[in-house]
Amino acid sequence: MESFFDWRNRLIASPSFQRWATRFPLTRWIVKKQASEIFDLMAGFVYTQVLLACTQVNLFDILSKGALSFDDLQKQVPLKPAGLRRLLDAAVAIKLLVKRSEDRYALSMKSAPLVGNVAILDMVKHHADFYRDLSDPIALLQGDTSSASLNEYWPYITPEQGAAPENLSAEKVADYSKLMAHTQSLVTDEILDAYPMDKHQTVLDIGGGQGVFIKRLAARYPHLAFKLFDIPGVAELSNAHFAEIGLATRGKAIGGNFFQDPLPKGCDLATLVRVIFDHDDARVKQLLANVFDALNPGGTLLLAEPMAETKGFEAMGHAYFGFYLLAMGRGRPRTEAEISGLLRQAGFTDIRLLNSFMPLNAQILRCNKPSTPMA
After folding, report:
1. Do residues 92 and 187 share a domain?
2. Which one of 27, 156, 315, 316 is CB 3.0 to 4.6 Å from 165, fit for a cystine?
3. What is the distance in angstroms between the CA of the first residue and the CA of the last residue of the chain?
């Protein structure tokens, strides 16, 4: 079979075959479709900049109440007429907007969910740094992250003197903590829908940031108590957030290094939400061992993050996160099977993939610490 595919590829690579296939009625549609897909790969960066420009001028919010004419948009969008027209036409071309009669523009089905969606809009703006890092992909693949913006944006990754996680101040971690807090809802909703927590008493959220997930859990499950473990600078922000939202009596953030320090004990549910994919295998094994040690016997671990080779979202894994994590300077996307293997090595049992309505945001693995020590 492989020899057939090799022959097929040689045939398709032939210019004479390409000319024939373009003109033959039964193959013409395939050629057009593949040409369009190749063009989209080449032009993808341009499309992202159209999206970025739309968010920077708040175009989606401006159109949120209905279609507006070009003249009305000129009054609200800080662009010259020629630039505004070019942006609007580009947005229509990639289906971010639709053009209606009398020179009016409106949201499309693709852009309507973006209105007021802080999580996605923040990520769109954040990607400006990522795209700068991708300007020399070969350098990145060779391991050169010396000029990578993402490497600086996530300070706990940077191997500078004094930049160990436990040495980072609240001010130093504020920017990335804010982004994580705003985008946490993309994963939090999946977890809340996938796993009921009525039977649990105390939750340990490892790498929980400013406590956005805990805030959601506290509202749904009034009986739960919470412990959050993150680097000291983030824990400081978390405790301030808990006090601000009235959760100081139910939740406490503890600062430390979750690879080196013992995690808080006395919890029957632990959560790792978007934590392990930006760490290498050796660190992940240590972290999972620490989680296993901290959990009560019979306790449960929920691990949620985007996973490589997710059916229907394959490009998200090794392509998007593969290069994003490369620019960060550490970690890699893992498949469900790879993560399950790491959990099994740490001693967890009953590993099961939970149902996720939007696997693009996260898939969720649930596993247990045995009630009695394994023989």
Report:
1. no
2. 156
3. 47
pLDDT tens, position by position, 320-352: 899 888 888 888 999 999 999 999 999 999 999
Q: Are the beta carbons of 31 and 21 closer than 8 angstroms?
A: yes
Q: Is the distance from CB of 361 to CB of 185 less than 8 angstroms?
A: no
Q: What is the pLDDT of residue 163?
A: 46
138 lies in the same domain as 109: no
In this structure, are 251 and 364 located in the same domain?
yes
Give pLDDT tens digits for 194-204: 999 999 999 99
Judgement on whether residues 208 and 338 belong to the same structural domain of the protein: yes
pTM over 0.70: yes
C-alpha 78: how far from chain center: 31
Pairs from 113-116 (Cβ < 8 Å, separation ≥ 24): 114/55, 114/60, 115/60, 115/61, 115/64, 116/61, 116/64
The DSSP code for 77 is: S
Residues 348 and 297 in one domain: yes
Taking only the tens place, the pLDDT of each residue in 89-129 is 999 999 999 999 999 999 999 999 999 888 788 888 888 88
d(CA 310, CA 300): 24
* Structural domain boundaries enclosing 84: 1-114
Answer yes or no: are the C-beta atoms of 369 and 298 closer than 8 Å: yes
Q: What is the largest CA-CA distance in the chain?
A: 76
